[in-house]
Amino acid sequence: MTEAGFDPASLVQSWPKPSKLRPIVTFGAGSIVGDAHFPAYRKAGFPVAGLYDPDQAKAQALAEKWGVTAFRSIEDATAVSGAIFDLATPPGRHAEILKALPEGSVALIQKPMGNYLGEASEILEICRSRQLKAAVNFQLRFAPMMLALKDAIAKGWLGEVVDFDAWLALATPWQLWEFLLKAPRVEIAMHSIHYLDLVRQLLGDPKGVHAKTLGHPNHTVAQTRTSAILDYGDTVRCALSINHDHKFGRRHQACEFRICGTEGAAYLKLGLNLDYPRGEPDILEIHPKGGSDWIAVPLAGEWFPDAFVGRMANVQRFASGEDTELISSVEDAWHTMALVEAAYKSSAAPAMPLAEKP
Ligand SMILES: NC(=O)c1ccc[n+]([C@@H]2O[C@H](COP(=O)([O-])OP(=O)(O)OC[C@H]3O[C@@H](n4cnc5c(N)ncnc54)[C@H](O)[C@@H]3O)[C@@H](O)[C@H]2O)c1
Questions:
Q1: Does residue 334's CB lie within 6 angstroms of at least one atom of ligand 1?
Q2: Domain parsing of the chain, residue ranges
Q3: What's the CATH architecture for 143-303?
Q4: Atom 27 of ligand 1 has which residue's CA nearest to it?
Q5: Over the stretch 239-277, which tens digit does the pLDDT of each residue have?
Q6: Do 50 and 28 touch, CB atoms closer than 8 A?
């Protein structure tokens, strides 16, 4: 407890556990399933019935490693009754799988919700017409450091939030994701989308966005650097400065958020990105209302895999009626996709030109 009465250990850092569990059926046997989905589900004791991937050799190898069934067909996978269908598939494949799920199913869809806003709208329409209870896997919202941040804000330790800065200067190993090397939309659509989604959860929808996203002369990945300003009117400032090409040693690299309120502030380091996929520890410090110094919040877990535990816990609890809100439902996630789309449009449009000299 600090002199201002701030107790960092009292901040909520995990999602409540579900008391009833449904079996999980995963689509896709790619890297994110082995790196995060299955480790999280094992850690939390969530039962995995099996997985399906049209690449049967890949499916079989991952299924054997985790002791689950490799389904031979999409029909076998969708026949598991009362399952949570966990889509870890490329964004362009989500729609066809959702169409094959039984009406009224529960689904968790990996981000992004389609490659473009048009695909997000198609996914939304499929979910509506088939009455799917579907959420998008914006798991950063459930990272222990982010749950603690949101709890601190809700408890008033920052006052009114008026400033959000994301600053990334790091070297991201894009070669780990082969499908990204040729994708037309990379940085905002695949990476910064997590930050834009989190900003939406903290500050609501902006009125618009100014953005510039670009590649780098040293490689051919479509975009790896982004500057963006989200317009929240005249009280709240929000900016993202993102450079995945800062390959000059660890010393001056950064992956940080600074969130300031009228009476307090928060600083976060997202350690995972600084040495992906090994990662460094995350950091959350708060300068609370009425306090005179920064207080470190001891974190109860890391972004990976703990955020994936919370993400699935909310889906499970919503399915059984224990949670009334499905966080990042497709209805909500569509707006993050709209923000991404607006950022690409802004980037493609010319900026305000300077006046000609008379
Ligand atoms: N939320 C996060 O933090 C996060 C992190 C990484 C990746 N992702 C997302 O997860 C998804 C998968 O990423 P990845 O890195 O594992 O990709 P990956 O390329 O390693 O794996 C994708 C797998 O999906 C399979 N697949 C394709 N069509 C399928 C279908 N119809 N049914 C079942 N499986 C099918 C492919 O055969 C492949 O094995 C992508 O949408 C990506 O954007 C999210």
A1: no
A2: 24-140+309-330, 143-303
A3: 2-Layer Sandwich (3.30)
A4: 89
A5: 999 999 999 999 999 999 999 999 999 999 999 999 988
A6: no
